[in-house]
Amino acid sequence: MTTGSFTNHEPDVFGIGHEADLIRVRKVLRAEAETAGLNLVDATKLITAGSELARNILNYATGGRGRIRVEQIHREGRRGVRATFSDDGPGIEDIDAALTDGFSTRGSLGLGLPGAQRLVDDMTITSDTTSGTTVVIVKWER
Amino acid sequence: MTEDVVPVMRIGDTLLVALQGDLDDTTVIRIEEQLTREIANTSATGMLIDVSRLSVVDSFIARVLARIVAMVRLLGAQAAVVGIQPAVAITLVELGVPMGHLDTALTAEQGLALLQRLRRDDTGTDLP
Ligand SMILES: Nc1ncnc2c1ncn2[C@@H]1O[C@H](COP(=O)(O)OP(=O)(O)OP(=O)(O)O)[C@@H](O)[C@H]1O
Ligand SMILES: [Mg+2]
């Protein structure tokens, strides 16, 4: 529904399962960051964090598959973007360890999760070894 | 595959490469392979990698950039990254990608001067 000059923006929801989806994730996050009025630095941080989380799905989720949902959020007159990355397994065994710089089960740099956390205003990880992993990131307009 | 993915310009002894667009991982790896070939197959003594048209550099792209620079040095030439956008630089620092050892310059012109200096320092160490 559209009211006045406010566009009731539908959330973007799509699957992640191929490397090309990294580019789609970045593109959608850029568009949503623009809609929310994020400045260039904050938009770049959000897109980069999202790129890291999408790559983790390609690298670690079962079959390299997952999905993303991106939506506009509002709180006390402020606008923001929330992006939810989910997959169906195998889950992160030790979330605290995974959030530590340099922790990687793949011999990689282990920067994706802790780096993404630094780049956004809020990041929540829910994960268990039976139902998979969901990472929610939020970036607010300044 | 030996297909070129990026145009490489030659200015004297220096190869100039401008990266642009939204790069997926495969493209980044193919660029790395192409640049390795170019530096090995030419007598170039320096390479400038212009990233001013990259609006996003995530940890993967940053890592490959650092690897390209290391590879160029191994092959006996000098390399520098030029034109990192301020928003990208701020993001990379916060992300925590170690890039401190990379030689960088603001513009291609300053990058050329930097390469000259690096070449001089390089030969300088061999002089008595
Ligand atoms: N979606 C996921 N499902 C299962 N495990 C995950 C997921 N995302 C991350 N992990 C685990 O958390 C660890 C840390 O992730 P992080 O992105 O910080 O580092 P990395 O991917 O190993 O290295 P880098 O991102 O620097 O290349 C990973 O090594 C992996 O074991
Ligand atoms: Mg990662």
UniProtKB/TrEMBL annotation, chain A:
<protein>
    <submittedName>
        <fullName>Anti-sigma regulatory factor</fullName>
    </submittedName>
</protein>
<feature type="domain" description="Histidine kinase/HSP90-like ATPase">
    <location>
        <begin position="41"/>
        <end position="142"/>
    </location>
</feature>
<dbReference type="Pfam" id="PF02518">
    <property type="entry name" value="HATPase_c"/>
</dbReference>
<dbReference type="InterPro" id="IPR036890">
    <property type="entry name" value="HATPase_C_sf"/>
</dbReference>
<dbReference type="InterPro" id="IPR003594">
    <property type="entry name" value="HATPase_dom"/>
</dbReference>
Automatic annotation (TrEMBL), chain B:
<dbReference type="Pfam" id="PF01740">
    <property type="entry name" value="STAS"/>
</dbReference>
<dbReference type="InterPro" id="IPR036513">
    <property type="entry name" value="STAS_dom_sf"/>
</dbReference>
<dbReference type="InterPro" id="IPR051932">
    <property type="entry name" value="Bact_StressResp_Reg"/>
</dbReference>
<feature type="domain" description="STAS">
    <location>
        <begin position="4"/>
        <end position="115"/>
    </location>
</feature>
<protein>
    <submittedName>
        <fullName>STAS domain-containing protein</fullName>
    </submittedName>
</protein>
<dbReference type="InterPro" id="IPR002645">
    <property type="entry name" value="STAS_dom"/>
</dbReference>
